[in-house]
Design a protein that fits this description.
heterodimer; A: mainly alpha; 2 strands; B: alpha/beta; Rossmann fold; 5-stranded parallel sheet
């Protein structure tokens, strides 16, 4: 397997890529930060609950009212934040590698539009009001649209990243328009979609999450399985084929993985922007262009961004809260701009 | 007290905006035709009187026969026994709360839709038009409406009692209003006396949740029916500081339910049978709610609020509140 980090010339404007030891240390640091945020997410909330109560809520459960608040509200949003964050981060890295486009995210293949349209149909036409009901519509919508884009973006010579992006933008635009039309004529759908479109991990019970975990697990395995071939494809299709990479198979596996990851995450939390776009950039800046490391870092950095944004959203407007989808944009945009202005290593 | 339902306000707003273009073309006929319309209207009724409205002193027929109601005037007018010939769109969630006879009256009238069709309004040949929509939107259609029939308009900031008085005066339903007012005053006086102890010693909090609320959130509601309980009966509900936004404007995460233990009594929105409304049901399903001491002691009361913009609706609210309060252990002592 080609290690692109070693294969690329180091010019005066290019960062020196850290070696495996430093990458591992960085990964360990990211893991420690993530663990710290998981604890913080359990401790910090709209109300002040003593750490001892949080501890007891998890390990010595009783019917104390504060314990219920920890178990029923903080624990699910923490777990959901972790899983959704990992899914968004890896899917973002996958789609950027697949399309060789550093500005790509799940939205570029029409995935968010597909999920959003399906939820609008579920709410507006079928009268489904709870997330347990319309989550699967979102998942289905994302899957169908991605498959459609895959077909539309295929040529006789296989899948073309440019064609897929164009097909995704076209299908996404059509569905966005149709969804908006439905929402404007249906107040119920408008109300639900207003909340859903903001992107939130609140009030997503763990029962909602469990059925999606197998999909996420399979998708993560698939993503890491194609990370090596994606490294070779970054050099160009001809060179990748010369190295024995099967382009069609790699692209199809990558699309299946990113659809399951991004579709599942969007179905649970709504379209949370910026995470899938920004985190792979940061990962690439830290570890260089090796997709294996980018995927690993993205899997940790994305939940870090999501959980820290969620915690911030709980405290800045106390006793109210700001949906995490709004905070990620406010937190992520300045960081990404600063990185892009300083470094050139995030190019694909 | 501002009494306009947000969704109806939005519907009225949309109606006015979308109809504006239609109005400009549909009512783009010459001034001559407008004058003719006014002449016809004047010819219908011999006697008139003047009512004070948001758009000035309006001369209206003493006994209007064909009234069109636009925006938030339709249900209050029907509540006072009025029988409009044309009404604007009211959502099913609101219609379902009406008594059967009022719903029948509403459905018998011509539906002008959310997007008020001014051609349809004109075709009904009304002798009076009653309007409550946002000021800016009324300005856009004011002249067209006045060309069709005398038009009395009130802004959304009009207090509901003032609106009722004005509608009754303009729509010739004052007798019914006087009867409702008498019932209302009697009920308030009775409840003040009956619950004097609760008024003095009990800390209430009124919760709500709307169909548009974000998942996992509720509000401490200090607007709506609870204002009657607070201001007219004197029950001690939390209220926003002077000059601040109403408490109901801040969505609170479910975690904040743990802080409700400091109140003696919780009221929450219920349907006519006393069951939590569909929008509020997620709150009562939480373990936190179930373990609240107030809930466990039976001091959480579902109260039916069919509306707070007409005396009939408010009387039904008071009846529900009375029944709920009577069930409190403190009230039985």
């Amino acid at each position: 397997m080609t290690d692109l980090a070693l294969g690329r010339p180091v010019g005066p404007d290019t960062r020196t890529v850290p070696g495996p030891r430093r990458r591992l240390i960085g990964l360990a640091v990211a893991l420690a930060v993530l663990l710290g945020l998981l604890v913080a997410s359990m401790m910090i909330g709209s109300t002040a609950i003593p750490p001892t109560v949080v501890w007891d809520a998890l390990f010595h459960p009783s019917k104390d009212i504060d314990q219920f608040a920890v178990r029923d509200f903080r624990l699910p949003r923490t777990v959901v934040g972790l899983v959704v964050g990992m899914a968004l981060g890896v899917s973002g890295a996958l789609i950027q590698a697949l399309t060789r486009n550093p500005l790509a995210d799940a939205g570029i293949l029409g995935l968010n539009a597909g999920a959003s349209f399906a939820v609008t149909v579920a709410v507006g036409l079928l009268g489904i009001r709870d997330i347990q009901g319309y989550m699967w519509f979102a998942f289905g919508g994302a899957l169908i649209v991605t498959l459609t884009v895959l077909v539309l973006g295929s040529t006789r010579r296989g899948q073309s990243p440019v064609m897929m992006v164009l097909a995704g933008l076209c299908v996404g635009s059509v569905l966005m328009g149709a969804g908006s039309a439905l929402q404007l004529t249906n107040p119920d759908a408008f109300d639900v979609m207003r909340s859903w479109d903001a992107g939130s991990i609140v009030s997503r019970p763990l029962d909602l999450l469990w059925p999606t975990l197998p999909f996420f697990a399979i998708a993560l395995v698939l993503a890491f399985a194609v990370s090596g071939p994606l490294n070779a494809m970054a050099l160009g299709d001809e060179l990748a084929v010369a190295q024995g990479v099967r382009l069609v198979r790699t692209r199809i596996i990558a699309i299946i993985a990113l659809t399951l990851l991004a579709g599942g995450a969007t179905a649970i939390a709504g379209p949370i922007g910026f995470v899938g776009l920004m985190v792979p950039h940061v990962a690439r800046w830290i570890v260089g262009p090796d997709q294996r490391w980018i995927f690993a870092y993205s899997a940790l950095l994305a939940p870090i961004l999501l959980l820290s944004s969620d915690i911030l959203g709980r405290v800045v407007m106390r006793p109210g809260e700001i949906p995490v989808g709004i905070v990620t944009a406010f937190v992520g945009a300045p960081v990404l701009i600063a990185l892009v202005r300083q470094k050139k290593a995030s190019g694909l | 007290m501002t009494t306009t339902h947000p969704r109806r306000r939005r519907a009225a707003l949309t109606a006015a905006i979308l109809s504006a273009a239609l109005v400009l073309t549909a009512c783009g006929s010459s001034d001559d035709s407008s004058d003719t319309s006014s002449d016809k209207t004047a010819a219908k009724t011999d006697e008139t009187h003047t009512v004070k409205a948001g758009n000035g002193d309006i001369k209206v027929p003493n006994a209007p026969k064909r009234v069109v109601t636009i925006g938030n005037t339709d249900l209050p007018f029907i509540d006072m026994g009025g029988k409009p010939v044309g009404v604007t769109g009211v959502e099913e969630s609101e219609l379902s709360l009406l008594p059967e006879d009022q719903r029948a009256t509403y459905e018998k009238a011509t539906d002008l839709g959310d997007e008020v069709d001014l051609e349809k309004v004109a075709s009904l040949k009304p002798d009076l038009i009653l309007v409550q929509i946002p000021d800016a939107e009324f300005k856009k259609i004011e002249k067209q409406l006045e060309a069709i029939a005398p038009t009395a308009f009130w802004g959304l900031d009009t207090e509901w009692r003032t609106l009722a008085d004005s509608i009754a005066d303009a729509g010739n339903v004052k007798d019914a209003l006087d009867s409702q007012k008498a019932d209302y005053e009697a009920r308030i006086a009775e409840m003040k006396q009956k619950y004097a102890g609760l008024i003095k010693n009990t800390k209430f909090v009124n919760l709500d949740r709307y169909s548009s609320s974000d998942p996992g959130t509720f509000v401490i509601a200090d607007i709506g029916c609870v204002e009657i309980a607070q201001e007219d009966i004197g029950l001690n509900f939390p209220k926003a500081a002077a000059g601040a936004d109403p408490l109901a404007y801040t969505s609170l995460p479910f975690e904040q339910l743990t802080k409700l233990s400091k109140y003696n009594v919780i009221t929450y929105p219920a349907d006519a049978k006393g069951q939590p409304t569909e929008a509020f049901a997620p709150v009562v399903q939480t373990n936190t709610w179930k373990e609240l001491s107030t809930v466990k002691s039976g001091d959480a009361l579902g109260v039916f609020c069919p509306g707070n913009n007409s005396y009939g609706a408010v009387l039904r609210y008071l009846a529900s509140l009375d029944t709920a309060l009577a069930s409190l252990p403190a009230a039985k002592q």
